[in-house]
Amino acid sequence: MRETSEDLKELQALLDASLSRSTSHLRSIINAERTLTAEQLTQVLTGMCTLALSTVTAKGEPRISGADGHFLHGKWHFGTARGAAKARHLAARPAVSVAHMRGEDLGVFTHGKVEILNPQDGAPAADWPDLLEYFKDFYGDDAFDWDNDVVYYRLHPHWMTVYRTVGQCSGVHAGGEGPRGSVC
Question: What are the phi and psi torsion angles at 84 (to 5°)?
Fold first, then answer.
């Protein structure tokens, strides 16, 4: 877990506020029994999590694609090739939605705007060196030309909610930690 106590506090506030301003229909599906706390969520979302990433074309048409998501400091981080269509979409229109689902057991749904962490023609984010070290450790130091081939983003969420199946606890719960991927 890479989250500080402040990261967890901000994430919990976001989760609570997002659910409270959701529709009654969504709140009938996701309630206190069918969600996770910020701390539980950070224990479940470790390593690489496949994201369904939704962007919008210049004509306003939705596009969805997959991305390797990493949940670090209470926010999604993901990358793509600098020449990818989604990179063009995100450069022009940074609003994005992502979903991470594990069968019927877990769904994490997020809306927000992205920040480019390593722009090709600008200064990188202040924490880019630490993030780059994490990504190189995960993918391998020589997996890419890290300066020219890939662009990384941080999703600053304005809405996030978590659904989990009741009765599917297999390790992560208040007061306990379980293996990667366990949901309660």
Answer: -70, 150
- Tens-place pLDDT, residues 97-151: 999 999 989 999 999 999 999 999 999 999 999 999 999 999 999 999 998 999 9
Say whether pTM exceeds 0.85.
yes
Q: Which one-letter DSSP state was computed for residue 171?
A: S
Residue 169 is given by DSSP the state: B
Tokens of 26: 């969504």
**Partners of 98 in the beta sheet?**
53, 110
Two tokens, residue 85? 């269509």
Ramachandran quadrant class, 126 (left: phi over 0; alpha: psi -120 to 50; beta: rest):
alpha
| CA 32 – CA 88 distance, rounded (Å) | 39
Residue 109 to residues 5, 53, 125, 158, Cα–Cα distance (Å) = 22, 10, 25, 11
First to last CA, the chain: 17
